[in-house]
């Protein structure tokens, strides 16, 4: 039977951890999302093809996802704080070494591999430790932390552009690397929880210190992270497998709209300056969606997996309607709907994962989920591109993304049914047997 969820602080110092995670999200994923500003500069400097240059970002994304199980395993063996600090140093190293710009292979190894590993080692434990610190307010805490990605992405665009114009792309990389060292500061603030009393299986003994009434944990007691091992066997649990399939299908579609939104607007004859504003609208409504959904989920009015299924359905609907746009206003409206519901989904999907596997297995589950989900991110854009080429219309890519999301919502429904059936089965097994004897005294005599 699954271990019962812990009783974390649900506030207090946990909010410091949330703010730290908010900063880490901005200094990692937001940097990755705005790295496209360096694309033309690097391509022209090395006089390479666009496909060759694009491998820098591809390597970063690949290592980000593939490194997640390694990061989770290190969190299990050591602490989230240690892994985040290591991630900050790796991210800085990737950008700082990229400053030398020796050749394209060098860029793959530095701003590609090292930066990707730094992002993975920072992002994974940062989002994980927030879930350890919160239970009732977990959805809200995760939503606030994830919103850092949107807030920083909105400001990093013009800021990075200014850095490139003032210091060149190499100087900008070095400065951004220095800024990413703040990840280490955030990591220091991510204090491990005091004891493993949070796990149901743990047996902690506390002593009261004479004179002040304060209690201290037995010396042998460690953080809940310290004594566990990474659980690769989660792939045998039907609940986790169903949620992982949902993750693959969702990732197949999530990477498509940002890829084809700008080309679609150009095909509609929309001016370049107006097209750029669509990305700003996307970032703003994404930010609002995350915070609003986190607040609503915190009210516990709707079961989180039901809420996720609803937001996924609404995203798919907005993607199916988006190709109907024929001018800037209609495209901006549908883009706003998509961005808002995307934000609501990102705000709670990690919370749902924690609910599915339970907190004792959450670190392992997060790493495995990221690894498995990456396949959808790799397959989705090329598949959508193939469909667009065959149809000769960018709208086809949005239809494909919407269809994949509809299918993913189906797996959430199956998962919910499975959980409900298991819950009813557990309740039936734990019901106390009623005595058939008319009097309790006779029942006692029978036992004797």
UniProtKB/TrEMBL annotation:
It is a multi-pass membrane protein. It comes from the Eukaryota. InterPro entries: MFS (IPR011701), MFS_dom (IPR020846), MFS_trans_sf (IPR036259), Proton-linked_MCT (IPR050327). The chain crosses the membrane at residues 12-35, 55-76, 83-106, 112-133, 140-160, 172-190, 240-262, 274-293, 305-325, 331-353, 365-384, 396-415. The keyword Transmembrane helix applies. Keywords: Membrane, Transmembrane, Transmembrane helix. One of its GO terms (molecular function) is monocarboxylic acid transmembrane transporter activity. The keyword Repressor does not apply. Residues 14-420 form the Major facilitator superfamily (MFS) profile domain. One of its GO terms (cellular component) is membrane. SUPFAM superfamilies: MFS general substrate transporter. It is found in: Membrane. This is MOT2 protein. The gene is Slc16a7_1.
